[in-house]
Amino acid sequence: MNGFLRAAAAALCLLPASPAAASPSSGNLEPFARARTASARLTRNARFNALLDRAQKAEDRGAYAAAADLRRRALALLPDHYAPRVALAEDEVRLGRLDLARSDFALARKADPKMAEAYVEEGYADVNAGQPDAAERAFSALVAADPSNPQGYHHLAAFWSRRGDFAKAEGFMRKSIVLLEADPRAHVEDLLGDLQWLGAILESEGRWPDAEAVYRDGLSRAKTSPDFQATFIAALASRQSPQEARASLEKAAAVCRQTRGCGPTTIGPILVRLAGLYMDESKTARARAALSEAGNAYGALDDGNSLGLDENAEKYIALGRAYEKLGDETLAERWFLRVLALSRALSSSPQLRAARKALADLYAGSARRLDEGGDRAGAAAAYRKALALRPREYALWVALAADEVELGRLSEARTDFAAARRLDSRQAQAYVREGYADFHAGDQKDADKLFAAAIVADPSGFAGYHHMAAYLDMSGREAQAEPYIRKSLAILEADPKSNRQDLFHSLEWLAAILKDDGKLAQAATANEDGLKRSQGDATYQGIFSIQLAQVYEAQGKNAQAEAAYRRAIDACRAPRSCEARARAPAWVGLARLLASEGRKSAASAAAAEALSELSDSLGKSPEDVYGKVFVLSQAADAYREIGADADAERVLRSILACGSSPIIADAVESARKSLAALEQTRARRRRPSMRPTRPPIITSTSR
Hints:
single chain; two-stranded antiparallel sheet; elongated
């Protein structure tokens, strides 16, 4: 009987990953090997042999189309030779020509119906192409052609493992094991490979004691096989504590290193698992070294053969995700891209889809981090790379469009917002973000249309009404804004599943709108209501206290206003956690109030606290930049009120350094004018024309 260790290289990828199961990729990667005879000199026909030799050389350098052409020319001379026919079919699979491959596999089977290779190769080509029914037929045909050959049962077991029918998979795998144990010519590695598979199947069924017994049986039989010694040691580690698992995996890796007897797809997954445990223990250097060693091992793998390709792809994805967890995006990208390079052979394989998703997630995560750092151009480029892989991702289009707005590319942003709406016309987010972009660009007509469209898109959701109200208030139409914010609140209050933060944010805006409309008593009541509802939420306790203080100021109740500002400051003191948009405005509001009363020393100290909060807490998102400029403009106001012109100038210049985002354009222009006034005369006292008092516009998806 032919040794068949290699023919199930792809089979190990078929067992679905499960938190309760040992990953089959941790085991030996070459059960059921077969000898490669495609270019062997099978005849005395010199022309035939020469063509096959040239075909093999073409294949070795990756020229699969040339290899296929040469093999087809050779087979035109001697059409009934099995091995070259199978090799030709493999070339067609690599080239994505599955129909031609099927024809050649059929001719190979006709030449020798009992040889397993053509059945197995075609079965895995179908697996990689996402055609499970055809794959099952190929493996079943092998059993029908030669019921005494364990390979058919082995591959059917792997197939049903992928389909999630573990009971059926177990039956086929046990049949394969029985045939192997009864055959004195069977290779011990084939039996060990089946035992590993059986253990993984049992583990997936939740039968750990039975799986452990199989793994220990396999370990006792693997004394002369370091590859399988490492495999079973690693399998037994799956249910150990993290410390015990790390020791076991280190032992398995040591077996491989000491004997050099492990294949790359045995030691590679062991090292990736080990790196994960090192990362959990913050042993970054060790984790990096383990991943580097795994990458070196995988670098030796042959991605030219469809057999085992799906499993190789699974391993590359695991290595890429490990590098991503380690924070090395460049190497993570490298391994995800290696999977995508196999797209023709893998076709609709789940691994190909998984790699696309992993790479898109990598780019999107990078874009978000670049956004947080204020690099809009870099973030936009990363979002475009993510969208090239996942073009139907609504949130990615909206995020890209938002960055285009910040970069001043309104035309490109409109195109991206439109792309998002084509994907989902019922979500309000794309309308809302574009509406704010138009507002800041001075296009009130289009902004009106977009905010109205947001409500039409999702009339039962709160977001359209909330943002219409905020927009109307910002554009000086407070009376029109109030009904919309009350509608938003009504929707949120009627929904028991609504987010408390959304409710508080709408209530925050109601209070601000009432104040802007001169309804000070109602504004005070709304803020007091907010304080009652937000008990336990330090951020909103601070925000409602700040807004209440502003109402008191407008009413001329300075003592009550000061007390409210100090309550906001106290609400955010440690150990309570509070967002910067509550902390910094509380200090700067107090500073401005104290300055208006001529309490210079206390006002200066409060302004310094506000500026300290800015440097410690606010990021670089558009909302954060708006909040930062809000605090800076009021701090400059306070400094000028107490005659600290040098401090005021320093703060005004820091506003100019905040960039050119449309959301702060008015504040930047106001700061520029104030600086000009200071330069003309230091004695002149002039308050900045732009003093934001409204809440920040939070445009995240949830709001």
